[in-house]
Amino acid sequence: MPLQAPKDFIEKYLTTYQAGWNILREQRKNSAIEKGIFPSDKDIVDSLSTYDSWSQVEEEDKKMLIKSMAVFAGMLDAMDFHIGRFIDYLKQRNLYENTIFIVTADNGPEGNDPSDHEVWREWIKTTIYDRDYETLGDEDSYVFIGSEFAQAMASPSHLFKFHMSEGGLRVPLIISGPGVAKGKNHNFAFVTDIAATINDIVFGGVNERIIGKSLQASLAGSQDKNYSDSEAIGLEVTGNSALFKGDYKIVRNRPPNGSNQWELYNLFEDPGETKNLAQIMPEKLQELVSDYGAYVEKNGVIDLPLDYEWAKEMQTNTIKRNVLPLLGWAILVITLIGIIAVMILRKK
Hints:
Layout (H helix, E strand, L loop, with lengths): L6 H5 L9 H14 L24 H34 L8 E4 L13 H7 L21 H8 L12 H4 L3 E4 L15 H12 L12 H4 L12 E6 L2 E6 L2 E5 L10 E4 L15 H18 L10 H38 L1
Antiparallel strand pairs: 1-2, 3-4, 4-5, 5-6
Helix pairs in contact: 2-5
């Protein structure tokens, strides 16, 4: 994706990631443990075992990857800096104490390496984007960190964006403001709860048209669950699927990072998704699979074919977007020329 940041922010991180992704994944796990985000006595998946080690990467490729990570970090640093400026602005105008701050993300780290796809390599030639090292992170540059660094950044969770493992779904939700207690809450919450919570704060209740639940009780300090053990939350993206219910979760990831088979995990006992319970708890698996079927029926989820590939879809959509409008004009011009030719012939 075209990640970009001011040069001063990027330069602060040019040496931060020189040790590579294996070290970064371990550092992130240890940091999560120290901050009380992940329990110290739980295992995690050896997610980088199927990738090349950092020592196997060519020096020129390392150079680009290290700077790409610096751009990513610089972008986040710049965002943090400007949020700080915004807070100062609110304080100067006596608005800070009446402001709710919500910081979150829509998914795990982007791990796609588009340069692996011929379609993308041809596409970028038609754009203004460049991949020059010296200008990486500047306006019009196209930056991506690749699967390995994305997996490291998602630590201690497994996999990354577009996947239904926790590395692709589990993101921070930071809320502060009046009436919000300090501390951590580890109970399950879903993205749809944000709109419901805002509606509850502003209007004193959740509009019936809004799906999701208000997190007001959690914000006030309650450790009660937001969802009961009988409530199921399903989701799907590009053919990968998951459903949460109580302490349990089913997940189905497509190849190459999955088997396209349902797996079952107890996230309370196994937040790292290391112990697939599908074989030893078949009834629980079937219960959640049935719940997923109800989710599919209710939301009109399309069952994508096994040969679905985003790169091919991008090629198709690019053709539709760029060629079809021209085709329409071409048909119009040809039609007009035909009408004019007929009129000329009639006059003769």
